Amino acid sequence: MATLAGQFGPVGYEYPNGQHAAGAQFRVTTLLGINITLYTDKNKTQTRPNPSTADGLGNISFYANPGEYLLRVNEGSPIGITVPLHPEEPLEGGGGGPGGPVAREWPIAIPTGVVDIPHNLGFDPAGIVCIRSGGTGQRVYPRVTYTDPDTTVRLNFPSAFAGTVFLS
Question: Which of 11, 57, 112, 125 has its CA 20 to 30 A from that of 18?
Answer without folding.
Answer: 112
